[in-house]
Amino acid sequence: MNPDIRLSQLNSWLATLASKWSLTLESLAPASSDASFRRYFRVTGTKNGAHQSFIVMDAPPATEDTKPFIAISELFAQAKLNVPLVLEQDVEQGFLLLSDLGNETYLSALNPGSAPKLYGDANAALIQLQLASKPGILPEYDKELLSRELNLFSEWYVNKHLNLELNSKQSADLAHIFDLILENNLSQAQVYVHRDFHSRNLMVTRDNNPGILDFQDAVYGPITYDLASLYRDAYIEWEEPEQMDWLIRYWDIARKAGLPVPSEFGDFYRDFEWMGLQRHLKVLGIFARLYHRDGKDGYLKDIPLVFKYTRKVAERYIALKPLLQLLDTIEGIDRPDGLTF
């Protein structure tokens, strides 16, 4: 549907709420957009009280479903996380009126001085979420879903974006690598997984930091997944000693809190890396698909960092040598036979 028609419908819907929430309709302005078809607007209110600013979600029903967002917002709020409250909803039209968590993202605020405190808060929020986990509430991050995500790498990044056709040996090797990755991922303890717990979806808030956005795709899955999103972030890079420090702090608190993390940090770190590898391969496919299918080129600039993460993990584990060889082919690197690292 034409965006102008959606905007007109959105304004009509807000007009029915203007009196209740003292909305200043003429203040409506774009707040952000994301990789989906959702859009967000900000509108101010004139009331003195808890809500002087609001976020309006426009989620076209033909492509987006607001019901998971509503349900998971309630679930995460019950875990005492700082998420937008759904104040008004029109599921049929795909409109939500939400509380506003501000406009300062982690990405905009992170620097060497602020990072330890911000990541410490993020670790604490993640542990809080994981401690609230129960099976049977969220969809399972099962083998089928994890596999479907890995296949995005082959279909969209290798075939479509790079215009490479894998030969039979490369295809077989990649299928074997995928099996190894899935074996690790599915062996990990299962908890609530936000699924995009990174610097663009975490907001700096005065109270109960961080504010947490974009959680509608949450699942029940591997315990290291959100940590891979956070510390192998596609939008900001930290040196490995810094990553290690924040991960050790998470692991230590998680163990003491009774979360099912491995008793040895080395085992935990390996799980983190292999889970991250699944995510990196998926993200390379998604960023390529956003460009080639959806016409969104803004994520192309983030591909090199994700590729760098992928290569680093492939270099570290001998079982991943076939993946490293494929990455060499992509980058045009010709190594002497038998030289892996």
TrEMBL record:
Gene Ontology terms for molecular function: ATP binding; transferase activity
Keyword Nucleotide-binding applies: yes
Keywords recorded for this protein, A-Z: ATP-binding, Nucleotide-binding, Transferase
Transmembrane intervals: none
Keyword Nucleotide-binding: yes
UniProt domain Aminoglycoside phosphotransferase: residue ranges: 28-251
Protein name: Aminoglycoside phosphotransferase
